[in-house]
């Protein structure tokens, strides 16, 4: 007979099978049990045929992986602890000493920092290309180029590239291309079928931190592919680097996923309404939102995302930036951001709360892009608040800080 404490730890009760409910259960583990040594030796962690160790997957993480693969139109997905880890996992799996990676000049900043930091230390070189000039990308591809990053729309300045042409170019030159698909989220366009005839990126990296989580309270990323061999390279690196995610975090994303379409559309509607309003304000020299005619790459957005919804208005993330006219001082721009009440100062996006971040573009880009007005770039991400309240908030902050030039 065991002591109660032992029975408490190794309890014989097993609940009946067959429980079925809207949400899948949350499985949490480092240790996973094996029935015998032969099973322990035979268990294959690579192919999702069983369980070996928490780091290599649980029913909860496998379920989320399958749903993200479906969202993206891919076949295989690995989960990582952040969107940046998805970028790093991809780069470290596909690049070695002597290789070169090409990154758009308007890429998510930490992607550039990884190239300038660890990748450079490992003897992997990088070059930045003009996201709005396919010829510039073509000219930079050499026989050392092993990976091309793509981003649509670009971070902060929101230029929408000719993604179809970029991917065709990579295909023609035999270079692997990886899209940072956080903006599109699998909803605005199909990364694995860009032209309706199967034109696909090789890798789609996604910060699940943003729309899939939707709460501003989870960090997670994913790397999705349609090629088993490519997936295996990424998965082996993922295993060797020890990039696991927590069961509770996976459950939080699983809980938010069913409403992602509604949340994305709501944030889109709000961002577009406010961006159109902002375009009427003289304090703003330029409004950057790919769905606005005149915004850099609008035609490319129209081509790729214009038919993504039933109403024919296209789809876009809830993000837009303004270039505050250069006649305003940095102090006035800061005062404008500080005066906002509903738009909170904070990084990230895709959650319920609207956010604002002022950027210093000089430190971020090789040179000031010709298609951008001079001034200070401020990025807004729209949450799920009422549009009128957000518009009033912008208006009061403008009166407070930007009325006198
Ligand atoms: C936020 C973001 C990431 C990184 O996601 P984290 O989970 O914050 O690491 C990567 N790419 C883009 C475009 C992002 O907006």
For the structure shown, list the relevant keywords.
single chain, alpha/beta, 405 residues, 16% strand, 12 strands, binds pyridoxal-5'-phosphate, five-stranded mixed sheet, Aspartate Aminotransferase, domain 2, Aspartate Aminotransferase, domain 1, 36% helix
Notes on the protein architecture:
The protein is an alpha/beta fold and 405 residues long. It folds into 2 domains: 37-258, Type I PLP-dependent aspartate aminotransferase-like (Major domain) (Aspartate Aminotransferase, domain 2), CATH 3.40.640.10; 261-402, Aspartate Aminotransferase, domain 1, CATH 3.90.1150.10. 36% of the residues lie in helices and 16% in strands. The protein contains 13 helices and 12 strands. It has helices spanning 4-9, 37-42, 59-72, 83-94, 109-121, 134-140, 163-173, 228-241, 247-256, 260-278, 298-305, 330-339, 387-401, and strands at residues 76-80, 100-104, 125-129, 145-151, 176-180, 203-207, 221-225, 284-288, 319-325, 344-345, 355-359, 375-381. The strands form 2 sheets. It has a 7-stranded mixed β-sheet with strand order 1-7-6-5-4-2-3, with helices on both faces. Strands 8-9-12-11-10 form a 5-stranded mixed β-sheet, with helices on one face. α5 links the parallel β2 and β3 (125-129). α4 packs across α8 and α12 (330-339) runs antiparallel to α13 (387-401). The model has no long low-confidence stretch (mean pLDDT 96). The site of pyridoxal-5'-phosphate has 13 residues, from α4.
